[in-house]
Amino acid sequence: MLAGLGATALVSVLGEARAAQPMLGSVQLTFTLDQTGAFVNGTPVTLQSPPRLIGGRTMLPLREAADLLGQPLLGSGTQLQLARLSVDVRQNSASLSGQAQPAGTVASVGTTLYVSVRTLADALNANLSTDDRSFTLTALRDGGNPLSPQARFSTDKSVYAPGERVVYTEYPFDPDGADITARRWTGRQDAYFQPGTYTVGLTVTNSRGLQSQPFTRTIRVEGTPADSPLTYALKYAQPGDAFPDPQILNYPSATPVTVDGPNYPLLFSDSPEVPTQSGILYQDSVQGRARLLAYHLNGLGRPARLYVMARNLEDRSVEVRSERLGETAPTRIEGLLGQVTLMEYFASSGGTTLSLMPGQSAAVYASPTLSAGSGVNVMQDLTTSGRVELTFLMLEDSLPPTGQVAQQLPYLQPDGRHVRGTFPDAVRHLRVNLSSLPTRIVIGDGQVDPAIVGTDALTRQSVRLSGNYGVLYDLEVNGAAGTAVALSPRGGLYRGAMNVQDGPITQTIKLPRSGNALKPDEPVMLWRAQSDRLNIDFVPASGSNLPISLVFYRARTLSGFGGLIKTYQP
After folding, report:
1. In whole angstroms, what is the distance from residue 236 CA to residue 225 CA?
2. How far apart are CA 121 and CA 103, in angstroms?
3. Which of 76, 423, 446, 566 makes an SS bond possible with 165, Cβ 3.0 to 4.6 Å?
4. Low-confidence spans in the chain with pLDDT less than 50
């Protein structure tokens, strides 16, 4: 009858039958011996195992029958319970309200457990009627646990075009007014791009830990596409959301123009990345504004802390002000380091001011205690009123960060794999005018965007900072109104943040919103520009890979293909 239905159709029609149950007093299952086609309340379904005549008894597959009738099948392993029916799977025996049933009431065919349809009807207080080889079993739906919450939702319609947004409205409730604390969806998508029939389910949990029965609705997708995955994302993707774009590497590049602007040096400490003893990691002197970036793991085998000490080199009092500070510590998850630091850095606005007498030292940064193997990433902008010496120290927890201790510590040798040094001009002021779209701007590839060069102040050797970690890219985009910009990772895992200024709006965007950006053809939405001029502050995230591309698209399409925009999303 319906043997040709595939797995998707089976799930969907089964879901449609289930969705009808909360609105009906009875569930009616109509089936025919040896046929997989059946009906639930008039809706066609496909059974995985057909009803059979076994030992002169009409038998139904127990699990499928319970599922279709909306009855909970409890237990696992060797004992199952369905209403008044108890089944011993190992013995193929059954009892009804404690009374043993005749042999043959339960049977196994392969891995499928069958039960007599008449026994099933008795267990459910159901009505069984027959017509030749066709049977109809009518059972009152299960009442469920009266204390359990109820899952409910609706969609704005039941038939959608491929790529059309589905608007879901939730309205679950709890019988006693307890809070709904968790939701679990199955089959839910914001849009379906392939024609077919789909079932969406919702299960909710209340504050008492009780879970609802699944509630499902079925939707159909057909007709002329409203959007492709890309045009849909350009309409609806939220900042931090990834979306597919297989053509991204074919887009032409736009070359920003470098302009003059305020600048200052970067003091970078990442070698040795994993110090194994207390000591000085890096040291140099600065005057005025500077950015500090340190990235280290505790390899001492005991608790330790990272410090940045400032020592006044002037013969007068000097003030050291922390303008911005972002840190991640302690953590063992390398991918977290750069992103959390950047989020904190962009969120900070002014901090403490230290007044140092001539020759006096004080810590301008002190990490939390780092257990063995855990790490710290810190980025800090300082402004000094005179020349100060800045020293990056890793100290075991028992040592105080004093000038006397620092003078007795060894200078730790670079590890040969990572970089330390002082890099002048650590701000890149870039300007670009958008013309044809889509287009992309490449950052951190070492060619179009070269690495900055500096000096290791301890060895006096020239060093190159691949990836430009800690460099602030001040990007001004003109002609941005009506465009969308996304980040495309080109070097592997990327997890960071950017600060966007769009007219009066300033916002820090977490990229991606969850997990990691990994694939060039799965960019992450950054922003949809409203103003003609868009300013983006970008600092490459420690622990992530470069290069990246910033990809600019036309954000909104006109009426016609892809023109429908649904603004309501509760």
Report:
1. 16
2. 17
3. 566
4. 1-23, 558-561
Cβ–Cβ under 8 Å, residues 292 and 267: yes
Query: What's the confidence (pLDDT) of residue 556?
Result: 64
399: left (phi over 0), alpha (psi -120 to 50) or beta: beta
Q: Rounded to whole angstroms, what are the CA distances from 26 to 20, 137, 259, 504, 568?
A: 10, 10, 75, 59, 36
pLDDT of residue 104: 93
Residue 350, pLDDT score = 74
What's the pLDDT score for residue 559?
Answer: 42
C-alpha–C-alpha distance, residues 203 and 212, integer Å = 6
* Two tokens, residue 446: 């070492």
Residue 528 burial (C-beta neighbours within 10 Å; 0-12, 13-18, 19+): buried
Torsion angle of the four alpha carbons 132, 137, 138, 142, in this order, in degrees rounded to the nearest 10: 180
Instruction: State the residue for tokens 């457990």.
Output: 113
The whole model's pTM is what? Answer: 0.78
Residue owning tokens 């392993």? 77
For residue 70, give both structure tokens: 């909306």
Contacts of 490 (CB under 8 A, 6+ apart): 442, 445, 520, 546, 547, 548, 549
Of 150, 148, 183, 149, nearest to 168 by C-alpha is: 183
Q: What is the pLDDT of residue 302?
A: 96
* H-helix or E-strand spanning residue 15: helix 7-20
- What are the beta bridge partners of residue 464? 453
User: What Rg value do the Cα atoms of the chain yield, rounded?
Assistant: 33
* Count of alpha carbons within 13 angstroms of residue 471, beta-carbon side: 26
Contact 291, 265 (CB under 8 A): yes
**What is residue 342's DSSP assignment?**
H
Q: What is the pLDDT of residue 563?
A: 56
Q: How far apart are CA 225 and CA 165, in angstroms?
A: 11
